[in-house]
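hi! just following up on the protien thing from before. the input was this:
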Amino acid sequence: MLIKKLPRIHPVKSRKAGISPEAKLFNRVNWKKLNGLVPAITQDYKTGKVLMLGFMNKNAWKKTLKEGKVTYWSRTRKKLWTKGEISGHFQLVKGIWLDCDNDTFLIKVKQIGKVCHTGCKTCFFKKIR
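and the predicted 3d structure came back as:
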C-alpha cells in the first residue's frame, strides 16, 4: 500500500513581530457597529451548551484577557461587570473566537456555579418552539 507523503505546513508568520494573537484579534473587531459594544456569547467549554449573551466594550475585553474571567459591559448599570464578582459564579475563559463578520465573540468558559440570576444553569431556559 502506497502512502502519499503530505507537504509540510509552515505556520504563517506575522508581519508585525511581537504582536500577540489577542492584539491582532482586537484590531480586527468591529467596535463601531454597535457603538463600541460587541455581543459575547458564552458557551460551556465541555458540553457546548450556550450559557448566556452579554456585551463587551474594549475595556471589558482587555480585563477579560488580563484576569481570565469574563467581564461584560452592563448596559443598564453603565459599568464593567465581571460575571461572578458578587455571586462567586465566575466564568473562567478557556477560549475566545471572533465570528466571520468580526462583530461577535464566542467565549468558551468553565462556569463556576449557576449562570442566570434566576438560579438556572443557562439564561436560555424559556423554550418558544
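The CA atoms of residues 34 and 119 lie 29 Å apart.
The longest strand covers residues 91-98.
cheers
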